[in-house]
RNA polymerase subunit sigma-70 (Flavobacterium aurantiibacter), 164 residues
Amino acid sequence: MEQSLEKDFVEKLKMNQNLIHKICRLYTQDEDQHKDLFQEITIQLWKAYPKFRGESKFSTWAYRVALNTAITLYRKDKRSIQTSDVETANLFIKEEQYNYEEEEQIKLMYRAVQQLNDIEKALVFMYLEDKDYHEIAETLGISEVNARVKMNRIKGKLKKILNP
């Protein structure tokens, strides 16, 4: 049973690890922080996986856990994070290399998004991932109307940041 659970988890994590990398990139400033946050999110997902009931898609659930972990660990007043012991998870998941040399426009967008608050970052991230407002609202625990209003305000903020 335990091996089956672990195998199922590792498969789902591999299929969704790019979304975790994107969240890490939004909430970190360098490669070491990125790796630390990726590891911590993986550990938190593993710890919570036995409680995953399948009422929502794995990706929606993983977004929620990953965003909550990132937001908790990277509040503006915290510059260093405390990570859990890797032995807690007892997993060996090969991390795919993440390309840090992206096009200049993507870098500018990330810099602009990093100036937003934590909830705004999460909303933009899911919007850019083509999540519908229903899934965004469900993941963030807000209403669809609130998600739409917030997104419109964020678009205005980003325009001002990118075109001062």
The CA atoms of residues 83 and 100 lie 23 Å apart. The chain has seven helices and no strands.
